[in-house]
């Protein structure tokens, strides 16, 4: 709709922000991208997300939607004529929501601990991370995407974390491909799609960003 | 419709109570299966929720749905002829999901600290709890329910935590009615509904259980 005004408040390296960029790209929605400073938070961010003061925030015709998975569902409902993310069957929809929530609970938390912890805590995080990826591999099965023949809600929730894998592997000193070749194959398949490759950031740039964060937080 | 619906639950779980309220609002007949989480987890629970091994689990025609908010959305989609839980407008729906997610992220963990900590930690937990209730009271505004004129998704997400209010007030030495009269009035208004009254655990039983658990943890 030509009259729609869509702005995305985001941080380039955020996998949560990348989810929204990918969702908007899949729907072919034009939007203004607004990079946010999370150290000195701007007035717009504080106004649009006063509760959590976090990105991403989708501002649609002046009204904010917060929390990446909620934003992705909102995008799916508003721009419903193209590329549906969620299945129409309620049970299948519940399963998609379950696995996207699993990505939030497990992949993000374990991944974060890989670059913020050391020693035994880091080893535990690596194990939890790989175990979680293996469960996702099981859920993917022989399908090209979690959404079936096309990219869907779970794919959008998961694939942005691929951009952080290189950072996890380098800092954690392990190979995700060695443990989960099927999942890496899946990520490569997704990256062949233009909507994905243009929404995801370069893993080497993300690694440099994580190194900078570790220095800043005093983690070696 | 002879639907086969079973709820795997534990009487004390606020997450299970959410599902009970939703099923009651929709007038769905179901079999309640108490899972004793103090003992070994049942084979049924392990089969129906192999990923997390937690309750609640809704089993519909033999197929499991896990995670309380995902279950609520499923119930709303399947039994859609009565008592809609979520608004139909995508933006309003996103707002309802935001507040239910806020309740999940904040209220559960913080309220647990109200009875598992003491001294400075307890004072910090009280401060966080008051901030949560302040935000929620503001969101409620002058509406009778978070859902507007009728009980909705956010009401159902929050109500079960009211079973612990008496306990938090007694241990923390504060009054929710004095500080947050709108929230107290909202709880009392909801308790007048049969779907809520028969789904929530009795505060006295919750209090007894928590006191026993505290003794075990070395309090008092």
UniProtKB/TrEMBL annotation, chain A:
Enzyme Commission numbers on file: 2.5.1.18
Keywords carried by this UniProt record: Cytoplasm, Transferase
Compartmental location: Cytoplasm, Cytosol
Domain GST N-terminal residues, every copy: 4-83
Domain GST C-terminal: 89-209
Cellular component GO terms held in the UniProt record: cytosol
Top-level EC class as recorded in UniProt: transferase
Keyword match Transferase: yes
Reaction catalyzed: RX + glutathione = an S-substituted glutathione + a halide anion + H(+)
Principal localisation: cytoplasm
GO-annotated biological processes: glutathione metabolic process
Signal peptide coordinates: none
GO molecular function: glutathione transferase activity
PROSITE patterns: GST_CTER, GST_NTER
Origin: domain of life: Eukaryota
Keyword Ribonucleoprotein: no
Role this protein plays: Is involved in the conjugation of reduced glutathione to a wide number of exogenous and endogenous hydrophobic electrophiles.
Protein family per UniProt: Belongs to the GST superfamily.
Name this polypeptide is given: Glutathione S-transferase
Organism field: Salix purpurea
TrEMBL record, chain B:
Annotated protein name in UniProt: Glutathione S-transferase
UniProt GO MF annotations: glutathione transferase activity
Residues annotated as domain GST C-terminal: 89-209
Residue ranges of every copy of the GST N-terminal domain listed in the record: 3-83
Class of the enzyme per the UniProt entry, highest EC level: transferase
Keywords: Cytoplasm, Transferase
GO cellular component, one term: cytosol
Domain of life the protein comes from: Eukaryota
Entry's family note: Belongs to the GST superfamily.
Pfam families attached to this UniProt entry: GST_C_2 (PF13410), GST_N (PF02798)
Compartments reported by the entry: Cytoplasm, Cytosol
GO biological process, one term: glutathione metabolic process
Highest classification ranks of the organism: Eukaryota, Viridiplantae, Streptophyta, Embryophyta, Tracheophyta
């Amino acid at each position: 709709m030509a009259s729609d005004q869509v702005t995305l408040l985001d941080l380039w390296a955020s996998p949560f922000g990348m989810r929204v960029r990918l969702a908007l790209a899949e729907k072919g929605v034009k939007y203004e991208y607004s990079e946010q400073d999370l150290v000195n938070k701007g007035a717009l961010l504080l106004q649009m997300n006063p509760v959590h003061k976090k990105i991403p925030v989708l501002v649609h015709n002046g009204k904010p939607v917060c929390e990446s998975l909620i934003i992705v569902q909102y995008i799916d409902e508003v721009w419903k004529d193209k590329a549906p993310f969620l299945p129409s069957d309620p049970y299948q929809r519940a399963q998609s929501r379950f696995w996207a929530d699993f990505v939030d609970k497990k992949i993000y938390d374990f991944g974060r601990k890989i670059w913020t912890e050391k020693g035994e805590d880091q080893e535990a995080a690596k194990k939890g991370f790989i175990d979680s990826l293996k469960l996702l591999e099981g859920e993917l099965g022989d399908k090209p995407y979690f959404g079936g023949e096309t990219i869907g809600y779970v794919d959008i929730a998961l694939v942005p974390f691929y951009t952080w894998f290189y950072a996890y592997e380098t800092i954690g000193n392990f190979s995700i491909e060695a443990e989960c070749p099927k999942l890496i194959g899946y990520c490569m398949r997704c990256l062949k799609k233009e909507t994905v490759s243009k929404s995801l950031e370069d893993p080497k740039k993300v690694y440099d960003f994580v190194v900078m964060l570790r220095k800043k937080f005093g983690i070696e | 419709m002879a639907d086969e619906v079973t709820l795997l639950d534990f009487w004390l779980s606020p997450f299970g109570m959410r599902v009970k309220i939703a099923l009651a609002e929709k007038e769905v007949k179901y079999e309640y299966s108490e899972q004793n989480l103090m003992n070994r987890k049942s084979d049924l629970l392990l089969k129906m929720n192999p990923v997390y091994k937690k309750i609640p689990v809704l089993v519909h025609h033999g197929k499991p749905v896990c995670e309380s908010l995902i279950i609520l959305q499923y119930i709303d989609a399947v039994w859609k002829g009565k008592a809609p839980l979520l608004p139909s407008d995508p933006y309003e729906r996103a707002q309802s999901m935001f507040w239910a997610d806020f309740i999940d992220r904040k209220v559960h963990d913080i309220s647990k600290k109200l009875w598992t900590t003491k001294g400075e930690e307890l004072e910090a937990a009280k401060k966080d709890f008051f901030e949560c209730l302040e935000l929620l009271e503001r969101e409620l505004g002058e509406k009778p329910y978070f859902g507007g004129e009728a009980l909705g998704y956010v009401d159902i997400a929050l109500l079960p935590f009211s079973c612990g209010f008496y306990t938090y007030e007694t241990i923390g030495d504060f009054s929710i009615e004095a500080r947050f009269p709108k929230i107290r009035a909202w709880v009392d208004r909801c308790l007048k509904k049969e779907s809520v009254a028969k789904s929530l655990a009795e505060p006295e039983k919750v209090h007894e259980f928590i006191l026993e658990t505290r003794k075990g943890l070395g309090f008092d």
